[in-house]
């Protein structure tokens, strides 16, 4: 091996430049990994899920790209989510965008082209210790539209099959000869006449209702009073009110001895 190359490698090692040269991952994470999840129960039992340790836990998953800038900071013994260092670098990086300790953490994979210029790429979330890749919005819309189209097509197919069955039944009913109504539904005129004769004979056998009792002498009914008042009003003559002899006219006079 050339001595110059060996000395250069040794110098880079002592200067700390070898830590920045990260070998590419053997299996880089793909863009669509929504069908898998990651969970390390042993790590969860050993370390808490908080802002200080959550990135180390995320780095164990297959969603983590070891060529990102966060890995460079880790090898320099700098916190991988330190924005003051990440903003000075360019390339792939992960940012913790939301955290609800210890249940939910959201990471965003983005490409940084400058201190204020970043392009979001993918989103990952850690829910109760399990890591997932969030689906893209276009994939969600495509799945929902496909499911809606499938349900609508199935509904039309079911409706068409039911209408065809109803049409066949109607055709069969039209082809069948009209049957006469059963005897129980027909009206028997002789039976009706017999019932009328029985009711008439019973009505004749019953005694007539007794007449109402006569009114007492001097009693005037309300109808007669109303007629007299109408006649008096029409004639213009005021008549004294009729006194009902049945109603008590006051205390009786005592006899003097």
From TrEMBL:
The keyword Aminoacyl-tRNA synthetase appears for this protein: no
Annotated keywords: Activator
GO cellular component: mediator complex
Source organism: Arabidopsis thaliana x Arabidopsis arenosa
Residue segments, region Disordered: 205-257
Protein name: Mediator complex subunit Med6
Signal peptide: none
InterPro entries: Mediator_Med6 (IPR007018), Mediator_Med6_met/pln (IPR016820)
GO molecular function: transcription coregulator activity
GO biological process: regulation of transcription by RNA polymerase II
Compositional bias per record (Low complexity), positions renumbered to this chain: 239-249
Pfam families (UniProt xref): Med6
């Amino acid at each position: 091996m050339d001595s110059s190359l060996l000395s250069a490698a040794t110098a880079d090692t002592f200067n700390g430049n070898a830590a920045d040269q990260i070998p590419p991952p053997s299996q880089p994470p793909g863009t669509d990994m929504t069908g898998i999840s990651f969970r390390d129960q042993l790590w969860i039992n050993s370390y808490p899920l908080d802002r200080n340790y959550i990135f180390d836990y995320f780095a164990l998953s297959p969603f983590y790209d070891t060529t990102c800038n966060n890995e460079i900071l880790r090898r320099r013994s700098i916190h991988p989510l330190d924005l003051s260092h990440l903003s000075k670098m360019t390339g792939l990086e992960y940012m913790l965008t939301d955290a609800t300790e210890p249940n939910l953490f959201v990471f965003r994979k983005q490409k940084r082209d400058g201190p204020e210029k970043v392009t979001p790429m993918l989103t990952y979330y850690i829910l109760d210790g399990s890591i997932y890749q969030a689906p893209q919005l276009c994939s969600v819309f495509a799945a929902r539209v496909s499911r809606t189209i499938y349900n609508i097509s199935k509904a039309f197919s079911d409706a068409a099959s039911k209408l065809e069955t109803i049409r066949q039944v109607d055709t069969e009913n039209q082809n069948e000869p009209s049957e006469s109504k059963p005897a129980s539904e027909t009206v028997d005129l002789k039976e009706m006449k017999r019932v009328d004769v029985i009711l008439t004979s019973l009505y004749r056998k019953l005694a007539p209702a007794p007449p109402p009792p006569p009114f007492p002498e001097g009693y005037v009914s309300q109808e007669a009073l109303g007629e007299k008042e109408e006649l008096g009003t029409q004639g213009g003559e005021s008549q004294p009110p009729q006194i009902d002899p049945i109603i008590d006219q006051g205390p009786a006079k005592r006899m003097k001895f």
